[in-house]
Amino acid sequence: MPVHGIFGNAHAAAFFRRPAQGHSMLLETGGYQGSFYRVSFIVFLPCISFAIVVSGCSAAKDNWRSVCHCPGRENCVAGCVVYISIIGFSSPGSSYISAYTYGLMHRLHHAHTDQPEDPHSPHNDPNPFLMMWTTRTNYFHLYIGKTDAPDKYKKNLPDWERFDRFAHNYITRILWIGVYIGIYALLATAWWQWLFLPATIIMGSLQGMAVNWWAHKFGYENYTMSNTSKNILPVDLLFMG
């Protein structure tokens, strides 16, 4: 049975067939067009995996380490505010989060780890999906000002309000989704490859779930802790933090 890709032909199936004797794979799959389909099939999964894992992780890494873990170092934040915001926008795209709000939320996480005031702890929710819904609720309450936090947690956070208004609105998110759909239309050669599209759209949230759930549920401790924080080396190298 021929395998029909998004372009409505059976070139993808030829990738799995041995060419007839005396014929090259290039000719069997329709010349240079068939070659394109084979190449797109080969590069599709690595490209999408890179986008979902590395891009999502890089944005979270920049927000987390540069913002949350250098409080009081004014030059660090002032010098990185543009870099953090732009990288945090261009990497996860449609799942952009404000560096200011994320930094504030994650400082509260470190200050109240596993306590009821912790905005995103797996200790407080029975599964990672409920944890991410709690995280989403707490994030938006902080972003719109419904939830306030002590001033000491707001010190030296990168606050680019105008950029946040541009990157955080739904029109910008929809435009990013359109870009992703265009990339899939160009590279996808089979229907099942489109199943990665939802993960691409919410890649930032998936990274947050992976890091915050893994780092509290699995791993090891170097000494006795009063909370569920753990080390996950070498897995955290994949998550970039």
UniProtKB/TrEMBL annotation:
Localization terms from the record: Membrane
Any one Gene Ontology cellular component term annotated for this protein: membrane
Alphabetical GO biological process terms: lipid metabolic process
Keywords, alphabetical: Membrane, Oxidoreductase, Transmembrane, Transmembrane helix
Record InterPro entries: FA_desaturase_dom (IPR005804)
One Pfam family, short name: FA_desaturase
Domain Fatty acid desaturase: 97-240
Record-level Gene Ontology MF annotations: oxidoreductase activity
Transmembrane segment boundaries: 35-57, 170-188, 194-215
Full protein name: Fatty acid desaturase, type 1
Species the sequence originates in: Corchorus olitorius
